[in-house]
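Ticket 4471: requesting a sanity check on a complex prediction with magnesium ion. Repro inputs:
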Amino acid sequence: MTGKSPFEALSVETLAARLGANEALCSHIGKDTARWKVREVGDGNLNLVFIVEGATGAAVVKQALPYVRLVGDSWPLPLKRSFFEYHALTRQEARAPGSVPAIHHFDEGQALIIMEYLSPHIILRRALIEGRQLPNIARDIGLFMARTLFRGSDLHMATQDRKADLALFADNVELCDITENLVFSDPYFDAKMNRHTSPQLDRIVAELRADRDLKVEAQRLKHIFAANAETLLHGDLHSGSIMVTDSETRMIDPEFAFYGPIAFDVGMLLANFWMAFFSQRGHEQNGKRDAMRAYLLDVTVETWSVFRTEFSHLWRTERTGMLYQKSLFEDQGDRLGAEQALDHMLHQVWADMLGFAGVEVHRRILGLAHNADFETIANADLRATCEAKALKFGRHIAVNRRQIHSIDEVNTLAALIERENRI
Ligand code: SR1
Ligand code: MG
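Returned structure tokens:
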């Protein structure tokens, strides 16, 4: 199969015949296609994902479809998202080595990426639902975010390189459009594809849609998302985009990559930890999850702390871009000036991060794309109780983001809301 043949979706039945001559794949798994075993394992919203095992190894073949898999061909989506995913992965590997799967091959025409099969990794979201406490995720993800977000910005890059990249990723229009609508607007009106646990959440949903302060804040955040082309984002950094073992963490699926605000990836990620926290009450069939809840709040503290510390370290050691040049500060003996600018920047990232986290919580409960943390709670009343608390938390941090000063403050609030008896 070459990049010149017309696009055709792979299937379990056709994959070996179509990729049997692919040198990169054969070199990793063996060229005897009779021994290949193919499984389709994609459980995301958009793409096909195959695991192909051969005599000498295994690999993942990920292929974009010309539509949204979750919805069907009534919602077309360009294949070029695979191009953005490939280019984002190569940049993430350069900026945060070892944090993403190795790429074996990219075929733009067939919108497919052949990459390293991560085993025995599982999706982080699944591990958190199972109540597993992974020791390294806060450190690994905090470092990943600081390194990719700092090194993809004008704080570090040569400005001509950053501008070329900005132009390249600016074409990821349709995936940005998904985020712009699904995250920042749809949850706050009666959008066609919305759904929520009903009737249990009906009253709360009506209250949120009538909440002027919340809607204004959500639109302010959308404005920042669309207008603040600060760095190359992962763009969809939730716990379903991270694969883990007890000792390893890898980020996957950056097809939503584009130039946006540093705070977006951080907020989306922390929102998913807070949702995992609020969902634990729904997963207590085999025992209390008090320790898991404490662990999840600790993870938010450590992730933010690692992100802040590494970002500050890079600010002091790798600030080679055209922003806040050393010639204006350190080179004139004004280290304090550089520290002051860093403080201002981190303060802004903090406040915007809280806002992005708040709306991410809302969209996962009120919009089209829900998450398994809540969805796997079979008892609808119990699910709604967990969701209602998360909604309340999300509203508070989005609207009050400029008045909240520490992650301990946020977590004290989360714990208070989680223990409330009434919703
Ligand atoms: C129609 S796509 C819905 C969601 O799935 C992806 O993982 C993104 O989070 C997107 O918002
Ligand atoms: Mg994805």
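Notes from triage: The chain has a mean pLDDT of 97. Leaving this open until the requester confirms.
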